[in-house]
Amino acid sequence: MIHQFNNRQTSAEFSLIYDEVTFDRVFYGRDNKDRKLTIAWNRGLSQKVTIDNLEYDFPQNTILCLMANETFHFQAPRDIVAWQFNRDFYCIVDHDKEVSCMGFLFFGSSEKMFIALDSKDQSKAEMTLQLFQDEFETSDHIQGEMMQVLLKRLIIIITRLGKQQYLQQKEDVGDKIDIIRNYNYLVENNFRKEHQVKFYADKLNKSPKTLSNLFALNSYKSPVLLIQERIFLEAKRLFFYTEKTSKEIAYELGFENANHFSKFFRKHANVSPTEFRKLSPVGAEV
Asked: pTM of this prediction?
């Protein structure tokens, strides 16, 4: 079942998807212009999810948040409940003070978070699903606003659970975590051109050393490693899903010298760009 809300005046789009035999996303292709974030809940047994040609275990009753630029498909899509929305429907950046998920659930590091639901949380998720279903049966001038309220509530619940399960320090670290979240968001928007920590540190009015210490104290990967992993991830996507040459990809990712890019890629992939392309031809699944 696919329920859709569209507002032609604002370009707002929201979808609720469940019990579908096929449900996936192909960013470098069919869905390139469809810039929607996805919240996926696995209501069935543990299954596999493939994201940008990497396979992950998707445990039973866990929630996974996916970016608009990720290509994914599920082993058992019929067991997936998904909420998809574009920024015109609800912008998590503009409303970060409300939901605090920017740079954490979305626009975060390359690590995937599978957020577990206990029996109480499952009941909340089921109730939220029912409220969305009821709202789709009520077509009036405030339908969109009601769905935004429900979506905001869902995001807040998931963010709270994610912080409980994935942050190393359980006490309130407020401002420190906000700096890390903002760093992640800045990297997501600038990694193609800015490869040095100093650029991001300056944006956050911090020194590179202060950032490195903050990340280490909170058991995060180093700031420079997060930049490198994001560049490497995008390089793999471009090799997986486009026919661009290594030189074209190097230029797109901010490398002035193709040889420099080749050394960078080999360091992270343990093979050269040419060898990687042979192992993973365009459009192939691993």
From this structure: 0.90
